[in-house]
Amino acid sequence: MAKKKNVAVIQARMGSSRLPGKVLMPVAGKPLLEHIIDRLRRSSTLDDIVIATSDKPSDDPLVDFAQTRGVTLVRGSEDNVLLRFNKAAEEVDADVIIRVTGDAPLVDPEVMDRLVRTLLQEGAEYCTIEAGIHSIHEGFCTFTREALKRLMTEASDDPVAIEHVTAYFIAHPDKFHIARIPVGNEHRFKGARLSVDTPADVQFFDELYRLLGVPAGDADIADVVRLLRNNPHLLQINQHVYQKKATDRSHKVLIRCDGDSRTGLGHVVRCLALAGELREKQGCGIIFAMASGEPGMEMVRQADFPLERQGDADEGEWMDELISCHHPDVLVLDIRNDLPVEKVNSWREEGILVVGIDDPTPRRLAADLLFYPPIPQISELNWNNFKGEIYSGWEWVLLRKQFCTSCPPRDNNPPVLLLTMGGSDPENFTVTVLRILDELRNDFKTIVVIGAGFVHEDDLQQFLAQARRNYRIEREVSDMASLMRQADLAIASFGVTAYELAASGVPAVYLCLTPDHARSASKFVDGRLAFSCGVLEECSNESIIETTLSLLDSRELRHEMGRRACATVDGYGAMRIATKIVEQLERMHSSNG
Q: Is this entry keyworded Transferase (predicted)?
């Protein structure tokens, strides 16, 4: 009998919905695909390695990568993975195919060899590990060329076969001869996420290799199991990430927001919170669309979300182009511009789910879902002809997941006062309040937060050069929750920061940029969560001093307000909104058949 040609086909694209470009992203200092290729080359049964990617221009970087690594590259359909695998098998004339996903960097060559030998020895069509066992292995299995041909004939229109290929074998065990290999105890483990779909997964592997102390890609699987058994806390790094199933529908979400020195960074912060939940908990692909604000855009890039930036086209034309290019299932709008409601209606008529965040404009009437914090202005708006759903209240406040952990009241001696005026502080509240605090003789410490969009650095430095008190300056803080939890009280510009402070159990004094902000802040005052001095330009220095001193001088008042605030804002609004969005999507798809 002629020797069978065994070929590993790596399914890889740059256009991952949750983490674009991940296959070439450094994992423990080495490109993800390089991990996989180097491990496959240790196999004793493989005759060839092929990267099967799409013919889209976005996957062009894989051409150069394959050439430098001496690996065959085959390009085919972006959406039909089954066709792509068949083309790869034909081009290299494979008899046995080892399907390898391009996001699982711990493929085990020895186990893969066992799969190939068992497949051939038993004359099976598909071979995988034994059923009912929680194995550490992920991202590879093997099948015959003849089985692939059967899929092309019998399942060419089946969504599971088209997108996931081998999942069809498992879904139809009565149609195929399936062989399985046993898994030893040293490779048995439950609860680990060993594929790369989000930044949290990259962080997991970075820490895994750091603790193993071996070069990237050289991890022994038994050593990995021992490490995870001895250090179960490692699993918490990416345990929250949703593991998509073969039958899951992929959703794409386009988020339109801006963040600059004029509008502040609050819109970007809360949209990033929602995007994180949609990506990690709901398995959605996210694209941000932004027109202005380099600090906000950099925040999006740092979170590893793809970003589209507005060019010369006007808002409506630009959004038309993005929707035509990306075909989103969901459009999230958190903007304060003149985008006409007619445009939004047209996108909704195309079947796109439109979600509005804290929108007071007429565009809200074209939305399917609207989410608001508990603000009194909602009841005053005209809701005639609105056919969507409105959700408003403390439970719908969009906060980053770092604010989901409650904390007891602080009791620092002397008290710690946190001064935070948002990401941009357009009216320079920071220096204005610092001048007031500098005159006080009370015993307290002050932490001053300077955001990424702060444009009053000269004024700040001039003040600090002659200040009487000492001030701790914190710039572009990433873990704001931890910093807030160091404080006994805060003075803050009203906005997203107000809700973050409440979730952190920090009683606060709010200064407002606009009368609208002052009205929204009234909910905090009514609930006895905080004090508000109203619009700053109408507020006297004496009022700010009096309100601040009332908190500085009363430990009991601080603790009472902090406990009430923490109980009111639980920090899970982003999770609730993401869940609502996906539930509405599923209802739409069900009603459309």
A: yes
Rounded Cα distance between 103 and 195, Å, is 5
Q: What is the pLDDT of residue 591?
A: 74
142 SS3 class: strand
Query: 206: Cβ–Cβ under 8 A, 6 or more apart, which residues?
Result: 27, 28
| pLDDT of 311 | 87
Peptide bond into 109 cis (omega under 30): no
Which alpha helices (H) appear in 197-340, and where do they start and end?
199-212, 221-230, 266-280, 294-302, 315-326
The stretch 326-350 carries a mean pLDDT of 93
Tally Cβ neighbours within 10 Å of residue 109. 19
Distance CA 371, CA 381 (A): 14
This prediction has a pTM of 0.86
Which residues in 293-438 belong to E strands, given as ranges?
307-309, 330-334, 353-357, 369-372, 389-392, 416-420
Whether residue 570 is predicted with pLDDT greater than 60 in this model: the reply is yes
Q: Which helix (H) or strand (E) holds 581?
A: helix 573-591
The DSSP-derived string for 539-560 is --HHHHHHHHHHHHT-HHHHHH
Q: Residues with Cβ < 8 Å from 581, sequence gap 6 or more?
A: 253, 278, 282, 330, 353, 355, 369
To the nearest 5 percent, what fractions of the chain are helix, strand and coil? 45, 20, 40
Q: String of b and e for 437-465 (b: at least 16 CB within 10 Å)?
A: beebeeebbbbbbbbbbbebeeebeebee
DSSP 408: P
